[in-house]
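Lab notebook, design round three. We kept the backbone fixed and only want residue identities now. Task for the bench partner: fill in a sequence for the structure below.
Input structure tokens:
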């Protein structure tokens, strides 16, 4: 009977990070279970460059030092010389994380359950095969919950005629002013003739692909982009509620990624945080670490409740962006804003509704 050093459940970005960051330099035998074909997964993960993300600079696809937030009437431009917005593709992250000294065995199987026996675990897959490991890293998570807000999106990678896009400026949020719905476009111009154009909604229900596509076409048309070729599509759902599972009492079970509370619910950003989580776990004696600080979590909760209970057309985000400079904005998005910036953020928000949410 072979007992692996660790079993990773799910090879999304967090499972992959465990293989690279925790076991990459060791000769250990590790086993990973993934029920989807991860070679077919292709999407970009955006984040602002922080100290903890610098070790991965080599695999960054592109950096933008300028980003905009606005609507048809206003356009706030933020710049940052040393904290640019970056993207890493899932494919690059996967290849980077699979290149290690450890011996990783990947099983294309679904884990049905696991439980401790003696000082190790028995993992049972849905074909009833048993595997054994000393530690469990579990990344299975609930992405949807009835009555809770979701960030859902659909994006198309397009190629267009030369010099269509300003490749130095990213559109972080362009609010389209839909009736009773928070919807914005997110544009990543990889070059003057290539971009990801994404339609994003914050709401409790998700839509058919055709809904987002229609918004993308409308936006492109407004920008006089009528000639384009689709190269690929990415879509997803990110929970805007605390999707973290309870911390396991067994010290050798680690909840990772979204399951381990990596997602910042008010923004849907999770990638850089799940990496920070695995980096912190490497030097922790515990099976869980605090990724988001108490005050950040509290502010997030108030903001989510505000979004849940009030119609918001993007004005709060634009107001917030207009009161902060690029570095302050990114420090807030990456969860390390100082007290002065936090004060500016609170000052930017609709007072009455926020005070109500604070006391709920
Ligand atoms: C298309 C897309 C774009 C995103 N863009 C950004 C971004 O720009 N910036 C950002 O910060 N965040 C982004 N996110 C949010 C977040 O970073 C991702 O959701 C990320 O994938 C979370 O990683 P994870 O490892 O926690 O979970 P997952 O990626 O969901 O990985 C879990 C894996 O476990 C597998 N699995 C589930 N159950 C089982 C089982 N029983 N047995 C075996 N395997 C199982 C799943 O198939 C999956 O591959 C994006 C999400 C999506 C979907």
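Proposed sequence:
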């Amino acid at each position: 009977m072979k007992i692996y050093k660790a079993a990773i459940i799910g090879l999304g970005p967090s499972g992959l990070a465990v293989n690279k960051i925790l076991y990459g330099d060791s000769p250990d035998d590790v086993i990973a279970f993934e029920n989807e074909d991860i070679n077919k997964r292709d999407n970009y993960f955006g984040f602002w460059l922080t100290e903890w993300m610098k070790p991965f600079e080599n695999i960054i696809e592109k950096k933008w030092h300028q980003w905009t937030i606005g609507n048809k009437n206003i356009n706030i431009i933020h710049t940052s010389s040393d904290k640019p917005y970056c993207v890493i593709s899932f494919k690059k992250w996967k290849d980077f994380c699979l290149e290690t000294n450890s011996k990783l065995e990947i099983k294309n199987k679904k884990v049905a359950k696991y439980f401790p026996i003696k000082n190790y675990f028995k993992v049972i897959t849905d074909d009833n095969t048993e595997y054994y490991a000393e530690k469990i890293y579990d990344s299975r998570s609930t992405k949807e919950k009835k009555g809770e807000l979701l960030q859902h999106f659909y994006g198309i990678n397009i190629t267009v005629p030369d010099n269509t896009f300003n490749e130095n400026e990213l559109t972080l949020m362009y609010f389209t002013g839909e009736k009773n719905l928070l919807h914005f476009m997110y544009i990543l111009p990889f070059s003057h003739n290539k971009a990801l154009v994404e339609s994003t909604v914050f709401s409790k229900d998700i839509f058919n692909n055709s809904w987002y596509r229609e918004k993308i076409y409308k936006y492109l048309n407004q920008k006089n982009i009528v000639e384009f070729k689709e190269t690929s599509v990415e879509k997803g759902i990110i929970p805007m509620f605390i999707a973290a599972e309870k911390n396991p009492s067994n010290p050798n079970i680690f909840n990772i990624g979204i399951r381990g509370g990596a997602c910042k619910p008010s923004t849907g950003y999770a990638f850089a945080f799940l990496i920070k989580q695995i980096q912190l776990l490497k030097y922790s004696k515990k099976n869980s670490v605090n990724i988001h600080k108490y005050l950040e979590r509290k502010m997030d909760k108030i903001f989510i409740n505000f979004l849940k209970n009030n119609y918001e057309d993007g004005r709060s985000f634009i107001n917030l962006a207009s009161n902060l400079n690029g570095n302050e904005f990114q420090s807030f998005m990456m969860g390390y804003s100082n007290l002065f910036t936090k004060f500016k953020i609170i000052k930017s928000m609709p007072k009455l509704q926020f005070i109500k949410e604070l006391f709920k």
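Keep this in mind before ordering anything: The radius of gyration is 21 Å.
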